[in-house]
Amino acid sequence: MGASWNEICNDCGKKFRASNGGGFVFHLLHCDNCGGEKKISFMDIGEIHLKYIKGLDKPYCIATAGYDQYIQDTYLGDPIAKDDYYRLVEEFAGKCECGGNYTFNARHRCPNCKSTNYEPTGDLLLYD
To answer: Structure pTM?
Structure first.
């Protein structure tokens, strides 16, 4: 499940909206240099995602449980582990315009000064 909330930068005072986590059918990665976001749908990832689902011992999430079970029962490809999946998704995401890499672990940053020194100001929204 993903979340979105308001932040205020402690370095420059900019107020902004931050998001973290993907959803039922997509991942949200951040650039490790500028903090920019990139959404990647499972459909776009294609076979990489199928291999990951094949290797799970349960559904990825309740919302896709039926489809996940279908993949686990019928997909003929070899399964992959979570670490391999994350690496392949990050490779698929490619480079950010700034030259950084989109990763699952990169933090969002202030859109004004690129700082990671911020604090939440409330208004939490959970999605997917």
So the answer is: 0.89
- Give the rounded distance of the alpha carbon of 49 from its chain centre: 13
Q: What is the pLDDT of residue 43?
A: 95
Tokens of 11: 């370095």
CA–CA separation, 31 vs 73, rounded Å?
35
* Length of the chain counted residue by residue: 128
**Could you report the per-residue pLDDT of 30-58, keeping only the tens digit for each?**
999 999 999 999 999 999 999 999 999 99
Q: Which of 110, 107, 114, 90 is nearest to 21 (CA)?
A: 107
3-state secondary structure of 8: strand
Q: Residue 125: what pLDDT?
A: 81
Cβ-proximal residues to 88 (8 Å cutoff; 6+ apart), any chain: 48, 80
Residue 45: phi, psi to the nearest 5?
-70, -30
